[in-house]
Amino acid sequence: MSASFTDKEFQQLTDYIRDNFGINFKKEKQALVIGRLQNVLVNCNIENFSEYLNYVISDKTGEAAVALINKITTNHTFFMREADHFFYFRDVVLPFLSKTVTNKDMRIWCAACSTGEEAYTLAMILNDYFSRDKILWDTKVLATDISKRVLDIAKTGIYSNDRITPLPRHWKSNYFKRYDDENSILNDKIRNDVIYRNFNLMEKTYPFRKKFNVIFCRNVMIYFDEKTKAELVSKFYNQIENGGYLFVGHSESLNRETTKFKYIMPAVYRKVY
């Protein structure tokens, strides 16, 4: 079966995706969306996209919506992506937080963590920075994503040897071990320092009891329209401690006219009263 959207069907589906997940697919993405969903319709024995959307909306388990998101999202990431952020986190943010955080409870949120490279990079930097004193600190990284598929990959901590080639030699020797001929696996120390949770950034209220010192949410807002982006940034502002940092992608920026965040450097912002 080869299905196609009518313009009305495409609008209905993309409206649903935007309203529930914040992702804004424009008309020129129609072929991409159709291509990624073809097999879903076949497997569900569904004839057209109107019927498919009704199926997603009526599925009370939420599994159909999860399958939809897993199919249409692009989860492209790699270790040390936009490396200057990690250097700034190591050289500026951590020295500040290590002196100012109360009760040695450092709260870091990796939002939209994809397959885990970003969250594990943060965990390795934290382990290096605190070294023997790390046992005195709570430095676990909360890593969330809307896609259960990528979270399942992240939790394994298994990556191809090619993917970890650019990492520092001491990271590869201290934090990874051989899994098989082509792959390596992170050791339990680093894997246990990351807590993975399924979470939709479009939730109206966030369930976190405490505010974060640092939030990484990079290369996600490029998929959002301006209204959705502004609402998300406002939520982040409310979830960050005073003096805390927000990292976004280098292809993203906050509107300096309207945001409460203070611009620090490209794609790095700070909450300062």
What features would you describe in this structure?
- By secondary structure, the chain is an alpha/beta fold.
- The protein has two domains: 7-72, Chemotaxis Receptor Methyltransferase Cher, domain 1 (Orthogonal Bundle); 83-270, Rossmann fold (3-Layer(aba) Sandwich).
- The protein is built from eleven helices and ten strands.
- A seven-stranded mixed β-sheet has the order 6-2-1-7-8-10-9. It has a three-stranded antiparallel β-sheet with strand order 3-5-4.
- Helix 11 (226-239) links the parallel strand 7 and strand 8 (240-247).
- Helix 2 crosses helix 4.
- The radius of gyration is 20 Å and the shape is globular.
Could you provide a short overview of the structure?
With 273 residues, the chain is α/β, with parallel strands linked by helices. 44% of the residues lie in helices and 16% in strands.
Here the CATH topology of the largest domain equals Rossmann fold
Count of DSSP helices?
11
User: For this structure, what is the CATH class of the largest domain?
Assistant: Alpha Beta
Given helix and strand content, the structural type is alpha/beta
List the helices and strands and how they pair.
Blueprint: H1 7-21, H2 30-43, H3 49-58, H4 63-72, H5 83-100, E1 108-111, H6 117-130, E2 141-145, H7 148-156, E3 158-160, H8 161-164, H9 169-175, E4 176-178, E5 183-186, H10 188-191, E6 194-198, E7 212-216, H11 226-239, E8 240-247, E9 262-265, E10 268-270
Parallel strand pairs: 1-2, 1-7, 2-6, 7-8
Antiparallel strand pairs: 3-5, 4-5, 8-10, 9-10
Helix pairs in contact: 2-4
